[in-house]
Amino acid sequence: MSRKRVQWRAGVLVGFTVILSGCSSEQKPAAKPYTLPAELSLDAHADRGPEGEIYVVGSTNLPDGTKLWVHVESGRLPLGAPKAIAFDDDVSVRKGNIGTGALWQEIPNPSFPSVDGAPKLLRRPFQAGSYKVRFESYFNGAWQTQEVLALLGGEGGKNLHGKILKLHDPDVVDSSKVLDDLTTVAFPPLEPEAKAISLVKAAVLTVPENGRSATDVETNISLFMSTPVCCRPGKGWSAKAGGADTFEVGFDFIDGGAGEKQAIWRVNLKTGAVTYVNESAKIFSWTPKY
Questions:
Q1: CA 183 to each of CA 4, 34, 94: distance values in angstroms, whole numbers, following the listed order
Q2: How far apart are CA 27 and CA 85, in angstroms?
Q3: How confident is the model at residue 114 (pLDDT cuts 50, 70, 90)?
Q4: What is the C-alpha separation between 72 and 103, in angstroms, rounded?
Q5: What is the Cα 82 distance to its own chain's centre?
Q6: What proportion of the chain, given as a percentage, has pLDDT over 90?
Q7: Burial grade of 136 (CB within 10 A; 0-12, 13-18, 19 or more)
Q8: Secondary structure letter of residue 258 according to DSSP
């Protein structure tokens, strides 16, 4: 074999070696094991969703997998306990962060009588302002996994420290500790699009040939969506500006074999007036009394 061919082969081998070494998967650094901090902490704030719903989100140095309850409170129940007006009882720490599902202010629906003492509820966005939010967690096997309890030093949390903790039974010397943190969280204002959607959902409209609807648009749509022969939800709600103080609000749904459709309403944010625009919106704008 000629010297030139040997040199060429050597160069090719070196090149392949460089390429392969560059393509080799790098070892990711191993995740640092959890170390129990000297003081447990939790910080939270509120974000708005596209329809005006609230999400309470934040960060904490609790270990991943820790389960919490998050309650928005206002006033007291008849026996004196705090009254939760919105809640998520299935919140878990993930990568040092927490976040609730969509939170709404629920009010009794006057169009439907209560059944077994439980009235049907309407979901409405929280107004902007300061709200009391409670974070709660217990350090026992009913709440936490054995892995989480081991990271926290065992059941009862007796060796935990932090302002977010309280004694479960302060009148005994060997009380366990619980996470019980009541804080004030600012709920941000509604964006114009979310306000427009909210106005349409809450509107009780009149259809010329049938008169005034028995329920609001959101309830009407829920009734239609619960009927097997009718339709099912699609992409949901959206809003876009249509002029000064005016928005067009759409609800996307699947109309059986007819496929995707959109009901459209027009909203004036300044006056609060809501009118239906197309046939689908007109149909969803009225239901009879039950």
A1: 78, 26, 21
A2: 48
A3: low
A4: 9
A5: 22
A6: 74
A7: buried
A8: G
| Calculated CA dihedral for residues 61, 66, 71, 72, nearest 10 degrees | 30
- The backbone torsions φ and ψ at residue 21, rounded to the nearest 5 degrees and listed phi first, read -70, -35
Among 268, 85, 108, smallest CA distance to 187 is for 85
- The residue extents of the domains of the chain are 42-187, 192-284
Higher pLDDT, 62 or 230: 62
Instruction: Report yes or no: 220 and 284 within 8 Å, Cβ to Cβ.
Output: yes
Q: Which of 97-101, 157-161, 179-183 has the lowest mean pLDDT?
A: 157-161
Q: Check residue 256 and report its DSSP letter.
A: G
User: pLDDT grade, residue 200 (50/70/90)?
Assistant: very high
- pTM for the model stands at 0.82
Rounded Cα gap, residues 169 and 274, in angstroms: 54
Which two tokens mark 248? 């067009």
Would the pLDDT of 130 be above 80? yes
Distances (CA, A) of 244 to 32, 82, 113, 209, 279: 54, 43, 39, 31, 25
pLDDT tens, position by position, 245-272: 999 999 999 998 889 999 999 999 999 9
Please say whether the beta carbons of 97 and 45 come within 8 A.
no
Residue 84 CB burial class (10 angstroms; 0-12, 13-18, ≥19)? middle
Nearest in space to 263 (alpha carbons), one of 246, 275, 245: 275
Alpha-carbon distance of 36 to 159, in angstroms, equals 10
- Closest to 252 (Cα-Cα) out of 228, 221, 276: 221
For the cut 50, the answer to whether the pLDDT of residue 18 exceeds it is no
Q: Which residues, including other chains, have CB under 8 Å from residue 3's CB and lie 6 or more apart?
A: none
